[in-house]
């Protein structure tokens, strides 16, 4: 009987540990930025995530203009009141950023300080110099570790 209870207890502990470390990826933006729209917001609830990161894939098609993409973030406690937020990224040498400008095709990665209690976040992707034939295709994911 003790062996059965021990096995059940160990199984329960392993299941609790495994569920506590779940990683969830959520698509929060996917669009082509041109003359209209020039920006897209990816808004998502962070909930009880221990760690939150963002992945942005940027693919530009330039014909006449030199285009770029600015990445900024805002946070909210109620989904109505939004405040500008700083974040970390490898492009900035893992230092605190208020924005990052991407001007070449590729992927971008950034994250929040895991100690911050933030219920909602808005990732803002704003293209510069886009028009009918100078476009930026952007895809953004939020990844949470619970």
Text of the CATH class: Mainly Beta
Global geometry: elongated
Overall mean pLDDT: 85
Tell me which CATH architecture applies here.
Answer: Sandwich
Structure summary, number of beta strands: 11
Rg, rounded, reads: 19 Å
CATH topology: Jelly Rolls
Distance between the termini: 34 Å
Biggest sheet: strands side by side, in what order? 1-11-3-9-6-7
Can you tell me about this structure?
- The protein is mainly beta and 146 residues long.
- It has a single domain, classed as Jelly Rolls, CATH 2.60.120.380.
- Helices cover 13% and strands 53% of the residues.
- The strands form two sheets. Strands 1-11-3-9-6-7 form a six-stranded antiparallel sheet, with no helix packed on it.
- Strand 4 and strand 5 form a beta hairpin.
What would the keywords be for this entry?
146 residues, mainly beta, Jelly Rolls, six-stranded antiparallel sheet, five-stranded antiparallel sheet, 53% strand, elongated, disordered N terminus
How is this fold's topology laid out?
Elements (H helix, E strand, L loop, with lengths): L1 H19 L2 E11 L5 E7 L5 E11 L6 E9 L5 E4 L1 E3 L5 E3 L2 E3 L3 E6 L8 E9 L6 E11 L1
Antiparallel strand pairs: 1-11, 2-10, 3-9, 3-11, 4-5, 4-8, 4-10, 6-7, 6-9
Brief description of this entry?
The chain is mostly beta strands. 13% of the residues lie in helices and 53% in strands. It has one domain (22-145): Jelly Rolls (Sandwich).
């Amino acid at each position: 009987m003790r062996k059965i209870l021990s096995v059940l207890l160990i199984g329960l502990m392993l299941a609790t540990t495994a569920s506590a470390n779940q990683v969830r990826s959520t698509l929060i933006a996917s669009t082509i930025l041109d003359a209209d729209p020039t920006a897209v917001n990816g808004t998502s609830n962070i909930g009880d995530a221990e760690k939150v990161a963002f992945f942005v894939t940027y693919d530009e098609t330039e014909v006449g203009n030199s285009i770029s993409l600015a990445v900024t973030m805002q946070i909210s406690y109620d989904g109505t009141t939004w405040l500008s937020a700083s974040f970390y990224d490898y492009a900035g040498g893992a230092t605190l950023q208020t924005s990052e400008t991407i001007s070449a095709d590729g992927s971008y990665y950034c994250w929040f300080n895991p100690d911050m209690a933030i219920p909602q976040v808005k990732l803002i992707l704003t293209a510069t110099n886009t028009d009918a034939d100078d476009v930026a295709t952007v895809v953004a994911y939020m990844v949470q570790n619970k």
